[in-house]
């Protein structure tokens, strides 16, 4: 693993090297002062990751990472930001996979790089890595969802605190209220303010609605897809997956179900059922939307069980884990909601085929409730 760190003070090298030793990692780390040194690397020294400060001596960090994206599309691109340096951050998300805080924390950097390594082991497809790496404008990470998640880690957080954070983004707040008043959540009573929505629905459901609002908010190409219909399927799949799995992993299944189809919004992906029109347009050679979506979520830093479930929800037999867990629940839920075939051979192999009639009835009941 060859890591290039640009602009961050080389005096931290000893601390970082010690952290690598503590984790048992044999990484080759090069500390350089400016962007020019990165682009001057010899051809046989392609970096696996490039970490840059926002402001460098010769150009900006985002400009450097944009060049890295073009020259080394498979490299992990990480931007370091000072505390409170959030102004204009949406502009830098096109060039960076991850945003980390300054001063650089060795543990956070190692975790960020290793999570992408794990992602690439899961999706070991060179054409996929290259295709995703070259996309000029990936949908940005769900910043409000991430901020909300961090807020909820504080045991002292109140519903008023959450409502205040959500209200800072009027567009997201409006969409959350619209979703809150949909047939799935309204219980027949109209919700008109964010604090009431948070109180009535609960923090977990609000988190999920924010994630849906951000993931399907119109970024990226439409690919001829009805976004509202996609979001509707996502919410139904999310609720059903959580009910199928139950227990402490239900929330993982709910989030994975919510994001199962997000890859359809990426450019140049294959979408089953649309082969004829893709062929007519000269497309259809790109990665499958499920793998592309999973790769995007991995770059966003979502937990690996969610990434793996999204990657394999259409082919659960490919999972590395045995048994029926998050990916299995998402497969069944997305198939039942989307009207596609459930992989009965997979369910038989994990000893869950006898539950399929019960699950079908549950899906029909959920659809009736939303009607």
UniProtKB/TrEMBL annotation:
Pfam family, one: HDOD
SUPFAM superfamilies: CheY-like, HD-domain/PDEase-like
Source organism: Novilysobacter selenitireducens
Domain HDOD per the UniProt entry, residue ranges: 138-316
PANTHER family: HDOD DOMAIN-CONTAINING PROTEIN, PTHR33525
All copies of domain Response regulatory, residue ranges: 2-117
Protein name: HDOD domain-containing protein
PROSITE patterns in alphabetical order: HDOD, RESPONSE_REGULATORY
Cited InterPro entries: CheY-like_superfamily (IPR011006), HDOD (IPR013976), RNase_Y/CdgJ (IPR052340), Sig_transdc_resp-reg_put (IPR014626), Sig_transdc_resp-reg_receiver (IPR001789)
